[in-house]
Amino acid sequence: MRNVGVALRKLCLVGSGAVMIGDEPYDAEAVFEASSAGRGVLSGGFTEDALRGAGCFAIAGETARLLGALEDTKPSGGSS
Fold it and tell me: E strand or H helix at 7, and its extent?
């Protein structure tokens, strides 16, 4: 969380106002600890189940598919 928290402070954002995209479960766990929302991409070699289990609320095969939908999908409030 330390690095995510530092980045959020430098950007003058609170966790609930940010979404992070990562390709590892560790990314999602760090984002969750910072009270933010995580989206996952399958480029890191981890399965969709692993990313969902770590807290990603949306997952895609490539980053471009997530970027186009950032405004369309809101976090559900819990990991599923």
Answer: helix 2-10
